[in-house]
Predict the structure.
Amino acid sequence: MKSILKKILVKVLGWQVRRLRKRNNFKIIGVVGSIGKTSTKLAIAKVLASEKRVRYQEGNYNEIISAPLIFFGQKMPQLWNVWQWLVIIIKNEWQIWRKFPFDVVVVELGTDAPGQIAEFRKYLHLDIAVITAIAPEHMEFFKNLQNVAEEEWSVRFFSDLIYANRDLCKVLPEDFNHSNVVFYGKNFDADYKYEVISSVQLYSISIAIILAEKFKIPNEKIKRAVSEIKSFSGRMQKLKGIKNSAIIDDTYNASPDAVKMALDALYAFESPQRIAILGMMNELGGVSEEEHRKVGKYCDAKLLDRVITVGKDANLFLAKEAEDRGCKVYRAKNAMDAGLFVKDKIKEEAVILAKGSQNGVFTEESLKPLLKNKTDFSKLVRQDKYWMKLKKEQGLITPHI
């Protein structure tokens, strides 16, 4: 019954999106990829908004049923709330018959299993698609990286032009065609080159600038918009910690390549003490052990004073490899335990990285004992009633210390 209702809603909402597009002249930019979709979407939207009227959604409306709501500025109700869905559909009709007040809509398209990206083709045709990365994700369903590539690159079947991160999209689909693909990144064969990529965020800002130039936005407006881009919650967000420490909050989610990039950012900091809180990377399926071991091997004892692991596979495999590399490792019982351990070990002007997946890990909670300003709790990810209740049920709530 649930799947039937969802199919009906997708069909109706998709029909409304197609009619809205037919009656109005606006561009659609879609962002897909294994890493950095939300940060890239927000960077593109905020830079383009320096001159264009841009519609986007701050959160993750990236499913087949939620993406259409972005076009109409609607919030996602509970699936079974039929009355609320009827109100949304009626309001959408009102918008369809009025002039659409936006020049660009930026959407994020997510996938959990093969074939889901292609589903968006039912109601979307993208003027521009951005592929941020091809990396291990939901490997219990995709099995191998080639299948991930086929899935993310399937966006090409309903896109006029594709921009792909050459540094992070090394695996290509079997029938790859360069005709409508532009690469960006720091590799020699990228169409846009950047000499230094010092953090994950620069990739997002880079493509935002490229698209702003394509939309012929003046350089001064681009520079001003880029300068005003702030870190997003849980995505390489920099926060002030106790004892004059700096916290790199990258706790929104975790995948192998993203963890390595976050570690690179940590390694680049000049500090008397570098600490990495590394949570388990969920949804890796049969390659989980291998990928956690690879991250453990990436931990450099010369650049890390402490490694704290959280979660079963991180404690089992990542921790062992990091120890073999000479790192001092603490296997935390949970995120709360990790934060309290670091609080006891932290030195003046330390730099602390926190990275990890969502369910069962929640490394954002490890940061609460370490924040200088308790008001910054609200800047962490997953602090609403739903998530806090879930964390409480799992015994992961950190005391307000």
In short: The radius of gyration is 22 Å. The chain is about 40% helix and 15% strand. Residues 258 and 343 are 25 Å apart (CA to CA). The mean pLDDT is 92.
